[in-house]
Amino acid sequence: MKLTDISPAIALTPLDGRYHNATAPLVEYLSEPALNRERMRVEVEWMILLANGFEGNGNRPVIDGVEPFTEEEKAFLRSIPEDFGAEGIKQHAAHEAVTHHDVKAVEYYIDDQFAKAPAGSAHINDRLKTLVHFACTSEDINNLSIARCVKNAVEHVWTPAFREIIDHLAAKAEEHKDLALLSLTHGQPATPTTLGKELAVYVYRLNRQLKHIENQEYLGKINGATGTFGAHLAACPDVDWIAVSREFVENRMGLTWNPLTTQIESHDWQAELYSTISHANRIMHNLCVDVWMYISRGVFAQVPVKGATGSSTMPHKVNPIRFENAEANFELSCSLLDTLSATLVESRWQRDLTDSTTQRNIGSALGYSQLALYNLMGGLKSIHPNQHVITRELDENWEVLGEPIQTAMRACELRGLPGMEKPYEKVKELMRGHTIDQAQVEAFIDQQSFDPETAARLKALTPATYTGVASELVAFDR
Q1: Which helix (H) or strand (E) holds 302?
Q2: Do 173 and 250 reside in the same domain of the chain?
Q3: According to a count of CB atoms within 10 Å of the terminal CB, is the N or C end of the chain lower?
């Protein structure tokens, strides 16, 4: 049997197959049917605005000869996209099979629905079909629909998952703000920190990107074939089409009005948004790698999943697969987002269609990120600090106290205390490349001419207490 003969159709990509449960919420906003439903919303709201006007024009019909819709009629028109389901998808597809044009198919689909208008809807008749898509180019509908789809997907699906990661890390940063941890710079033992402070670094970084995303503008336009309102004025020269356009984009579509475009809205806001999400992805990718290495080092222990297999041949293994999965999918998401950011800002003269097919991959770009967020969250919930390993690492690396000792010697020398010359070199001779213990550190301190207060302060230090104000810094992660 051919797999292509199986019904329902087998998914080609893992986002709609193996990982469907993790990415399914995005279908509501970034699938092809979701886009067509949003196109219907735009078309319907445009009709209502043209027929019923707005406060800026005295709530009079924008176009002469069109009677305002009643509340019942408006409710019916708005039900067209809301009721767009499996049968509607088939009906739209049938139109597109003939038109080979997805937006024209939407227009014809809306025409079809007029026959279902409730009794007494005198204004919804065949003559009113002329109002559907009035003075619009396809991109008037598309740019608004895509902006609303992306905005809703980011605000209702991606951002909550992203914020969940931040909130989890923030809670763990607070919980472990005093848990001393051996740092590694260049992979070598270095000045200790705390686990909470290291997690707070990620919280701070991610929160900055979250603010950019929350403040993101989503631009839209409705101004005709090349952005001049030419057809609008030719048909209805007495209408203030600029005011109508602004009203529709800002107050009916909930977007930022773009007054200057070619046939397409220039997509700069998309490039900005996708660049920011890609940046956030890369920060979380860094987190995945760091946690993976902490697990490898034993700083984090994993909670085994009952029944799960870590290796087909090594039964003892508990693999950090959630972090590895997240790492790979962040990379895939970034590659798509970077391509979108780079290509969408260019268009040949007033219009070419490269953006049309490119934008159909927005769902995939966010889908891979959504999948990565899902796995990262699962991974973070399955780990906990391994106190035994953390304590052992600190106890085995007393040489990290070379930094505070030589720095204190410098301060004493600056105060004029004798015998403190060449502090860095003296400490280097004792500690570099050597494994030393507490007794050797204390003996070195005793050999120097420290004042009693400084000597006592240095001798009270241990690798576990030499963390500066790391625990206090956690408060700045927000």
Answers
A1: strand 300-302
A2: yes
A3: N
The b-or-e profile of 388-407 (16+ CB within 10 A means b, else e) is: ebbeebbeebbbbbbebbbe
In this structure, what are the phi and psi dihedrals at residue 239, rounded to the nearest 5 degrees?
-90, 140
312 within domain boundaries:
no
What's the pTM? 0.94
- Residue 15 forms part of a structural domain: no
Q: Are 221 and 257 in contact (CB under 8 A)?
A: yes
Cα 366 to the center of its chain, rounded Å: 7
- Residue 408: exposure state from Cβ atoms within 10 A (0-12, 13-18, ≥19): buried
Those residues whose C-beta lies under 8 Å from the C-beta of residue 357, and which sit 6 or more positions away, are none
71 burial via Cβ count (<10 Å: 0-12, 13-18, 19+): exposed
Specify the 3-state DSSP secondary structure of 352: coil
> What is the mean pLDDT for each group of 10 consecutive residues in the chain (478 residues)?
90 93 96 98 97 95 92 94 96 96 96 83 76 96 98 98 98 98 96 98 98 98 97 97 98 98 97 98 98 97 69 58 97 98 95 92 98 98 97 96 95 92 90 88 94 96 97 92
CATH number, domain at 286?
A: 1.20.200.10
Residue with tokens 């740019």: 143
Question: In the chain, what's the furthest Cα-to-Cα distance?
Answer: 102
Residue 311 in domain: no
Query: Are 127 and 198 in the same domain?
Result: no
